[in-house]
Amino acid sequence: MTEITSDFSGQTVICTFEMTPATASELMEKLQSAYSEVISKAPGFIGAGLHMNDAQTRIATYSKWRERGDYQAMLRSPEMIARNRYINTLCRSFEPVMYEVAANY
């Protein structure tokens, strides 16, 4: 379980995917595969969670990294470039955004 704490000094990334219910299951399957086979094995990876809304129109991922460069290096790997090209065909959009934890409750 990835813990959210305000004293975390690494990189937090929240990525949102917008899709139709017709592609939701396949997209989630591809994301789970990417996390289990590639992302979770990348240097600096700490943990992640994947979430889908009830309408199956949005997926949100939350991941924690030791530092920003670790996340960026994973994205630039040939394996993730190929996977993200395919993932992009399953959704209307996806946007990874880097955050710092401001507070936790």
Automatic annotation (TrEMBL):
InterPro entries: ABM_dom, Dimeric_a/b-barrel. Keywords: Monooxygenase, Oxidoreductase. Coiled coil: none annotated. It holds the Pfam family ABM. Its EC number is 1.14.-.-. GO terms for molecular function: monooxygenase activity. Residues 12-80 form the ABM domain. SUPFAM superfamilies: Dimeric alpha+beta barrel. This is Antibiotic biosynthesis monooxygenase. It comes from Thioclava arctica.
